[in-house]
Each structure stands twice: as C-alpha cells, then as structure tokens.
Specification:
The protein has 547 residues and is mainly beta. Helix content is 10%, strand content 30%. Strand 28 and strand 29 form a beta hairpin. Helix 1 packs across helix 2. The termini are far apart.
Length: 547
C-alpha cells in the first residue's frame, strides 16, 4: 500500500489517532462499510463538509478506485471526530484530497443544459451559481456554474459530452466557456485528451440529399448548431456534427454551421422571412469564437472516407441537380455543413466586430469559414482547416461591400476534397470593399481530371491559392482593395508551387494559376472574369521557394 502504517508502539506527533490499514483482501470486504460510514458522516455534518480549503459536496464524490474510496474515508474520519489520517512517510501528514464534481466521460442530454441558457439561469452577481445537471447514464452529476461578470452571464461547463439536437439561439450577453483549450496550434491535427474536453455532440445530421434544408419554415428543428447573438463569447469547447452529405438546396450555401451569427435562413434575405435559430435576423456584433475544435471527435474513424470514390456519384453534366446524381450519395464523413458562418442579415449595418481565433477543423461538408453579406471589422486569425467540401476561407459580400476584414496566420489544407474534383479553393472572395490576407498558408493538390462546371465548362477547384469570383452576386465597387501580405503555397506533400511551373491568368489541368498584382508581384491568384476591376496588391511569398 502507498499508505504508511504507524510502527507498533509508536505514535508520530503528526498522527492524532493511530490507524492500522487493512490488507488488500480485508479492504475488498470492508469497502462497503467504509462508504456507508462516509455517507453517514456526511449526513451528520450537514449538506457539505469543508476541510480547510476543500469543500466536499455529497452526491458529487467520485470513487472510481480504492484510492478515491480511501479519500472518502478521510472525510468520514474528520466528520465523526476521529482526526486526521496519515499518508506517505511516517513524518509527513496525510492531507485530505480535494474532491470535486467530476464526470469527464458522462454524456448529458440536450435539455439538461440548454434550458439553463434559454431561461438565463444564473447568479445575480459575481458569485458563481452551481447548477447540477444529470447525465444520461452514471451516478455522478455534473456542475455548470454561472456568474454575472461585467453584465454578461458566464457559463462554465465541465468536461463531458453535451448533446445538441437543434439550432440553439444563444441569448445576448452570454459566454459559454468549456473546461480547457482543445487545440495545440504547434500540432493542430493532434487530437486532445477528450476526457478533459467539453464536447458538444450533434444528435441529428443531414443524410438525405433531397431534404428541405435552406427553404424550411423552421431552422431550429431543421439545423443543428449554435446561433450567437450580440456580445456572445464561446471559448475552450469542441463541436462534432454528424452530417454526411451536403443537401441539394444548400449547393449555393445557406448555412448549417457549427457556429453562426444571427441572420437570414436563406443566402438572400429577400427570398424568405425565416431567420436562423428563430432569431430576429439582425446582424450580431461583438462576437468572439476562440479556442474551438470542430469535427475532430469522429475524424480518426472517418478519415479513410475522405475523398474516397463513390460509384455513380459524379454525374454533374447539367444544372438539373435533382435529376442527376452530382454528389447525391453520402460520403460518410461525419461533420457539420460549415465551420463558422456569418449569414446575410436584415439590417443594413450587418455583422460587426467579429473575432475568431485559434480554431482547428478536421472536416466539413461545405465551407470552412464564410463571411456573407455586410461585415465590418472582422478578424480571423490562427486557424487551421482541412478537408472541406467547398472553399476553406471565403468572403462573400455579394453587393453589400464588406470592409475591414482580415484573415491572418491561417492554414488551409485540401479544399473541396469532400466533393472530389468539383468545387473549392483555399481562399475565395465573392464581392467586397476591402480585405487583408496576411501570412496565409495553402496546401492543395493539382488535379488532372477536375469536373467542369455545367454552366460554362470552367474549373472551380484547386486552380490557385486565391480565387476572386464575379459569381453569386459578387460586386467589387470602385476603390476596392485586396491586400495579400506574405503567403505560402504548397502541394499536399509540402513542396512549394512556383510561377515557372504554373500557368498565367487562366487555369490549365495539372497547373496552378499565377497573376501579376497591381504593384507588379506575381502571386498565386486568379480572376474568374477579366471584365471585373479587382485591385490586388501582393507581397512576395512568406518563405521564398528555392531556385
């Protein structure tokens, strides 16, 4: 035993009561008596027993081993006046182990935690209110705390799995904080210890190509994920979606992200009066999404399905999407449609003051991060996204002229692979007033047999690092400005692309497009229309390729 028995005939000064520990065999037969003693002692000592700094709350004890059960014995001993027991050497006192609420492997049903946010259950001041939540299985309850901090309700979630089965509108002035940061940006693809993480796990997902997704009358019951109101922070959490296909009516993208800001359910607000998450459709402001990991919980199981060939899934010869099978079969990779989505909103000011930082995403059925409509003052930084079914980073202003948008220190890997050979690039824009791309890295393959667009025969996947489109309502007003500061462009094996091995201005099979910027720098970008005046200012690559 790691516990020291006092020597016969002696009593160390630090021991108030000599105590002979039973043998292993005796301990097994006595453990129920010991636990009964603890329960009785706890009852006699009122609702909780505080031992110095350590407060022990009945009902929250975790006793997964004899060591934990023995720690309970210390509580019982103190509660009935037996005094302190000893651990370690004969001269070192045994300190009662701090017991705390814990059920890292527990799964909590959606209603158990979401009702708290919907009702705004919280402390009235900075003293945290501890709220018990009951798991689906197991005898150990979890605890969510909430305190009012600077006029915000700050909910702190423990480690565990928290089910989510609808699109949840998070009220304004709310923070959702998990147990720990799931990301190590030095090794972004390395999974965290899931027992230490707060994971939100979708219980419903898209599996039907023909489902009514964008045009449904109620987004709360149609989609799954979070809609973030103004002055909302989400930090130190993971999210796992279980969509295995991109539905047909979401081909032009209407959302379905793990995290969205408030806005319209359609990608054009004039089409419908429905808003996401049952919101008012007014653009959110002052939203922070930080230290978040997306669609990685199942990725080790699903990785072999990424880009796998599916027979009969590539008939994309016409625009009649429901009359042919153009990726109409599920790819089997469990993920959300989008990682982070800013929808078009119903107010002219749009979405303002968005901060996205330290995000890792393993797979997505559509885009990685897409900022749509009017966006002002958005900073996206320190992000790693791989294996999308569309563009990885997109600014889709259409005719709303977003401004003051920055993507900085972001990495994109293998765009479009969840719909192989079809659509997707590392960085894309569809209308804007101004944007800065700083220190971005793209790893993408060259494709020998991309599937041409049925509308004009163009290639829309892996043609360059940056693609500036004039489609999907894109507008680039006079004075528009795209700044590319430093960049790294490589194939999937990490070999740099160079202008000498690419093509100029127009795509060609097996090559990447390079274009000369306004300030005379050849950089990996491509205009889909020569008739659109897009002002691109570029610097040389972040690390110059070898000669």
């Amino acid at each position: 035993s790691k516990y020291t028995q006092p020597q016969v005939g002696t009593e160390p000064s630090s021991v108030r009561l000599p105590f002979m520990f039973p043998s292993a065999a005796m301990w097994t037969s006595c453990r129920w008596v010991v636990l009964l003693l603890c329960v009785c002692a706890a009852a006699l000592s009122s609702a909780s027993a505080c031992l110095g700094e350590a407060c022990v709350y009945p009902g929250f004890w975790e006793h997964d081993s004899d060591a934990d059960a023995l720690a309970l014995l210390q509580v019982g001993a103190r509660a009935v006046g037996m005094g302190a027991l000893q651990q370690g050497s004969q001269s070192s006192p045994l300190h009662v182990r701090r017991l705390r609420p814990s059920c890292a492997s527990c799964t909590y049903p959606y209603k158990a935690w979401s009702d708290l946010l919907k009702a705004g259950t919280c402390s009235a001041d900075a003293t945290p209110l501890a709220i018990e939540i009951t798991p689906k299985t197991g005898s150990t309850n979890g605890t969510i705390t909430c305190a009012l901090e600077e006029h915000r309700k700050v909910y702190k979630f423990p480690a565990g799995i928290f089910e989510i089965g609808e699109q949840l509108l998070v009220p304004a002035n709310t923070s959702i904080l998990g147990s720990s940061n799931p990301n190590d940006m030095a090794e972004p693809t390395k999974p965290p210890n899931w027992r230490e993480q707060t994971l939100f796990l979708a219980t419903r997902g898209v599996t039907d190509y023909l489902m009514n997704y964008c045009h449904a009358e109620d987004m709360v019951s149609t989609r799954v994920g979070f809609v973030l109101s103004s002055f909302v922070t989400v930090s130190d959490v993971s999210y796992q979606g279980i969509d295995t296909i991109r539905p047909s009516d979401n081909g032009a993208l209407c959302g379905g992200a793990a995290f969205e800001t408030k806005g319209c359910a359609e990608n054009d607000c004039s089409i419908s009066s429905v808003n996401n998450g049952g919101s008012d459709g007014i653009g959110s402001e002052h939203v922070i999404i930080e230290n978040v990991r997306l669609n990685d919980y199942y990725f080790a199981e699903d990785e072999a399905k990424v880009g796998a060939s599916i027979e009969g899934n590539y008939n994309c010869s016409t625009d009649n999407w429901t009359e042919q099978c153009c990726f109409c079969k599920p790819n089997g990779v469990r993920a959300s449609q989008v990682g982070i989505w800013v929808p078009q909103s119903r107010n002219i000011e749009g979405t303002r003051h968005l901060f996205v930082n330290n995000i890792v995403t393993s797979a997505l059925q559509a885009d990685g991060i897409n900022l749509h409509g009017m966006v002002d003052d958005a900073q996206v930084q320190n992000v790693y996204i791989q294996n999308t079914g569309d563009d990885i980073y997109a600014l889709w202003g259409a005719n709303s002229n977003p401004t003051n948008v920055t993507f900085q220190d972001c990495v994109g890997v293998n765009p479009g692979i969840l719909r192989p050979n079809w659509y997707g690039n590392c960085m894309a824009t569809y209308g804007l007033q101004s944007v800065v791309f700083e220190n971005l890295k793209c790893q993408a393959p060259t494709l020998e047999h991309p599937i041409p667009s049925p509308s004009d025969g163009s290639v829309t996947i892996d043609v360059s690092m940056f693609v500036f489109y004039n489609s999907f309502g894109a507008s680039y007003p006079e004075g528009n400005n795209i700044t590319i500061k430093g960049w790294t462009f490589e194939d999937l094996q990490g070999h740099p692309y160079m202008p000498a091995t690419g093509t100029v201005d127009v795509p060609a099979p097996g090559k990447m497009v390079w274009t000369t910027s306004k300030n005379g720098v050849a950089a990996p970008f491509y205009f889909t229309s020569s008739g659109t005046q897009v002002n691109v200012y570029a610097s040389p690559p972040r690390t110059p390729p070898p000669p």
